[in-house]
Each structure stands twice: as structure tokens, then as C-alpha cells.
Amino acid sequence: MSTGNLVKMANQIGSFFETMQDHDQALSDIVSHLKRYWDPRMRRALLEHVAQEGGTDLSPIVLEAVNRHQARLAENANVHS
User: Fold this and answer.
1) Which of 48, 55, 60, 75, CA to CA, is 20 to 30 A from 8?
2) 38: helix, coil or strand?
3) Contact 61, 22 (CB under 8 A)
4) What gap in Å lies between CA 78 and CA 60, rounded to an integer?
5) Whole-angstrom Cα distance, residue 24 to residue 69?
6) Residue 8 placed within a domain
7) Which domain covers residue 40, as residue numbers?
8) 80 in a structural domain
9) What pTM was estimated for this model as a whole?
10) 80 pLDDT exceeds 90?
11) What is the Cα–Cα distance from 16 to 35, expressed in whole angstroms?
């Protein structure tokens, strides 16, 4: 799957959770969704994209969630955080 598609899907997930009143819970829920429904290779590609490109094409809430919870996203994705 292309990085562009991963970014688009991650931003759609972020858009859904962005409306939550509890910002910290929204960040955690984004990561939980990515852990639950994304293949480890998809998570690894997203983390690598953020590490290499800065993730500037991600929505602010998704980028914050990825940066804050890198270790959780990297679990079982063969990524060293």
C-alpha cells in the first residue's frame, strides 16, 4: 500500500476522533484504532514515513498521536522506537 493511501486513511481516522472533547483520549483512541485494524506492515510504514519525512502531510492530531505513542504503534511491527 502506498504511503499516500496510508496518510489518507490515517487522516480520516483522525478526523473522526478529533471531535472528542477529551484530547488525550482522542490521541489514545487513534492509536488503539491503528493497532487494532492496521496490519503491522502498515503501522511500520506510517512510522517510517513520520521518521523520514516528518509526517507533515498528516493532520495535526494524527501526527501528535503517532509521535506521542510511537512505542505502542511499533509493538509487533518490527520497529525500534
Assistant:
1) 75
2) coil
3) no
4) 25
5) 11
6) yes
7) 3-74
8) no
9) 0.90
10) no
11) 16
Q: Is residue 21 part of a domain?
A: yes
State whether residue 15 is helix, strand or coil: helix
Backbone φ and ψ of 56, nearest 5°:
-65, -15
User: Into how many domains does the chain fold?
Assistant: 1
The SS3 assignment for 78 reads coil
pLDDT level of residue 75 (50, 70, 90 thresholds): confident
User: Residue 49 falls within a domain, yes or no?
Assistant: yes
Give the helix, strand, coil percentages of the chain, each rounded to 5.
70, 0, 30
Going from the C-alpha of 24 to that of each of 5, 30, 77, the distances in angstroms are 25, 10, 23
> Residue holding cell 485494524?
37
C-alpha cell at 44: 511500520
Task: Convert the pLDDT of each residue in 29-74 to its tens digit.
Answer: 999 999 999 999 999 999 999 999 999 999 999 999 999 999 999 9
Cα angle value 37/41/43 (rounded, 5°): 60
